[in-house]
Amino acid sequence: MSFDEYFDLNDRMDRLDQLVAFAVGLAPRATHLRYLDLSQVNIATGAGSSAGLACQLASGAAAAAKILLGRKPLRPVPSTPSTTPTATFSAAVAYCWPTATRSSASNATSSSAA
Q1: So what's the pLDDT on residue 73?
Q2: What domain range includes position 85?
Q3: Whether residue 107 sits in one domain with residue 68
Q4: For residues 84 and 87, what is the distance between their CA atoms, to the nearest angstrom?
Q5: Same domain assignment for residues 101 and 58
Q6: Going by C-beta distance under 8 Å and a sequence separation of 6 or more, which residues neighbour residue 59?
Q7: For residue 4, how far is the Cα from the chain centroid?
Q8: Residues 84 and 61 in one domain
Q9: pLDDT tens string for the chain (114 positions)?
Q10: 3 state DSSP class of 47
């Protein structure tokens, strides 16, 4: 399935319709909307809040706390080789969340790769 087929995009759509189709394709249930400040989104200029940056900052803060508290050593992500899109996604999600979730995501990665 191509990118355009998955997101139901075509050249006859205007920019707003393409953005809506892309957003719905990325997160059909839109469970993340309650965490976003939509007053900062401006579709005309392409400006908006960055959840990815927030995730990077949170993981950096968690890593710093782990180092300062002398907890288990940090592992690079992904810590196991992955070949499927789901395994790669699980590793990316594990990067954003604390260690307890990371171990369960790693288990899901190894079981989905098998």
Answers
A1: 79
A2: 50-114
A3: yes
A4: 5
A5: yes
A6: 95, 96, 97
A7: 21
A8: yes
A9: 888 999 999 999 998 899 889 989 988 888 878 877 788 888 888 787 777 777 788 888 888 888 899 887 777 766 565 555 554 454 445 444 444 444 444 444 444 444
A10: strand
- Read off the tokens for 24: 């719905």
Strand partners, 42: 47
Q: Alpha helix locations (H) across the chain?
A: 3-7, 15-26, 51-68, 85-96, 99-113
Cα gap 109→84, rounded to integer Å: 9
CA 38 centroid distance within chain: 18
Opening angle at CA 84, ends 32 and 98, nearest 5:
45
Query: 5 and 28 in one domain?
Result: yes
Q: What is the CA radius of gyration of the chain?
A: 18
